[in-house]
Amino acid sequence: MHRPVHSKPMMGRLILSDITRRAALASGAALAFTGPVLANAQVSVFAAASLKPALDEIAAGWDVTLSYAGSGTLARQVAAGAPADVVLLAATDWMNWLAGQNVLVGDPVPVAGNRLVLVGPAGVGRVMLSGRGISAALGPGRLAMGDPMSVPAGRYAQQALETLGLWTGLSDRLLLTTDVRAALAYVARGDVPLGVVYKSDAVGTGVEVAATFPADSHAPILYLAACVTARPEAAEFLSHLRASGDILAAYGFTAAPTE
């Protein structure tokens, strides 16, 4: 029996209380920040990897340093004292955990939403979200997705596959990645026939959306941003980000909910 390409055993169902446990296990020296931060950067922004294309454009002309990784990795780094001024995460549970560490300045604010899609290489066509449909499209290959233990997109993917009754049949055929953009790269290179990523990831990358998961098959996908320092420049960039909905929409993100 094939098993997911992964260094840790998968659990049948992940629950939000695992956030605290995983954060505690990952604390300590292993969390020392290794991302590219410039000592004289005006604003240091830590952002979920799925935001990269859009955020690169949003930040153009601003004196900022952008560091991308999975939301769980970023949250743990910020809690451990990494030099971030602004943090943007793709999961409310990780942001809530980070707020509980008393490292945020002010309340997190929503900036965008997203949809979860099944993608394949150009020409893949439509794939039915059924065991037979996905297995036929996979052939002998694997399904790439983020690691549900640390990557929000992977957690949403597991939720969706469980809701649709597909998780048990596919859990032995997974290629788990450290962030959602890595899962996309496996598909774009042709290393795997299918991947589960955000809709925004599929924009302009050469992959094709084969199916869109029902919105009610997983928790709402919401991007939250918060300041980590009280520097005025950090608050100014956060305001600029919140006013950049047109750019986010052009990259496939949905509008953030308003209350």
From TrEMBL:
Example GO BP: molybdate ion transport
Keyword Cytoplasm: no
Keywords linked to the UniProt accession: Metal-binding, Molybdenum, Signal
One Pfam family from the record: SBP_bac_11
SUPFAM superfamilies, alphabetized: Periplasmic binding protein-like II
UniProt-recorded Gene Ontology molecular function terms: metal ion binding; molybdate ion binding; tungstate binding
Keyword Metal-binding tagged: yes
Residues annotated for molybdate binding in this entry: S50, S71, A153, V180, Y198
Top-rank lineage group of the source organism: Bacteria
Entries under InterPro entries matching the protein: ModA, ModA/WtpA
One cellular component term from this protein's GO annotations in UniProt: outer membrane-bounded periplasmic space
The family this protein is said to belong to: Belongs to the bacterial solute-binding protein ModA family.
Assembly and interaction partners: The complex is composed of two ATP-binding proteins (ModC), two transmembrane proteins (ModB) and a solute-binding protein (ModA).
Protein name: Molybdate transport system substrate-binding protein
